[in-house]
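Backbone-to-sequence.
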């Protein structure tokens, strides 16, 4: 099993800092982390690809993920790989994660994380964040499948793009910045590398081979580190986060990386 050397033991989490200011744009609309913290991403069911409960260190629920695929639409939902991050009271959408259907190489190489707020002033919402529009004109789809997605009309803006390399051991997360010319403003923007994610090399006989770490491009200090802590009754990821990072983006990224692994390998979950 490939991967990079772990930098967990050489990271001082008391001083690790992602550098995001309190007013920085975060995908969920919440401010960046203000201190080191640990969160848990627990699968609602071991054999369920999408639905997670995200817990704070004290066990309180921060957010949940919900698949946009049920019943007759489930197979199509797995093909597109779409889920929403939800939270608050009353429960409402915070972000959406969606596979790029076309133009990303392999069918699971590229993913977009959407926010309810624009990444830059003048950015336009992406109509294809909604599956009803994505599938418009695909006559081979059953009518009941496309109708399942109607009524989902919240404006969604591209916030981050996640690109997985063919081995799935290196991932690049980029932000959408404003184009140089205002006339070029649209649903996307200039992709700016924001985060480098690496699969961590683990001992050959380890059962927990899906361990990842992230850092800024060109820097060695970690901003996040997560591994699976599975039992026979539950499967969950434990994620360490530095202060000054976008916790919602990191949670979405970890879930989608495992989703790719499950759909490509037919496994149940990371580290299993």
């Amino acid at each position: 099993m490939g991967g990079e050397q772990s930098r967990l033991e050489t990271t001082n989490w008391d001083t690790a800092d992602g550098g995001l200011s309190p007013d920085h744009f975060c995908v969920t609309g919440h401010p960046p982390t203000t201190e080191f913290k640990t969160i848990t991403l627990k699968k609602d069911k071991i054999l369920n690809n999408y639905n997670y409960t995200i817990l704070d260190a004290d066990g309180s629920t921060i957010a949940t993920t919900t698949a946009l695929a049920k019943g007759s639409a489930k197979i199509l939902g797995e093909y597109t790989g779409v889920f929403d991050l939800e939270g608050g009271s009353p429960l409402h959408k915070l972000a959406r994660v969606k596979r790029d259907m076309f133009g990303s190489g392999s069918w699971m190489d590229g993913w977009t994380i959407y926010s309810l707020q624009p990444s830059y002033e003048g950015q336009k919402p992406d109509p294809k964040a909604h599956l009803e529009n994505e599938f418009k004109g695909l006559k081979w789809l059953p009518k009941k499948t496309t109708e399942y997605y109607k009524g989902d009309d919240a404006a969604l803006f591209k916030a981050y793009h996640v690109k997985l390399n063919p081995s799935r051991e290196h991932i690049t997360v980029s932000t959408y910045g404003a184009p140089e010319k205002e006339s070029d403003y649209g649903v996307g923007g200039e992709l700016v590398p924001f985060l480098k994610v690496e699969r961590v090399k683990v001992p050959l006989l380890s059962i927990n081979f899906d361990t990842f770490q992230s850092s800024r491009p060109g820097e060695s200090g970690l901003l996040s580190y997560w591994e699976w802590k599975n039992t026979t009754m539950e499967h969950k990821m434990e994620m360490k986060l530095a202060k000054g990072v976008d916790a919602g983006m990191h949670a979405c990224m970890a879930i989608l990386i495992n989703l790719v692994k499950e759909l490509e390998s037919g496994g149940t979950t990371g580290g299993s």
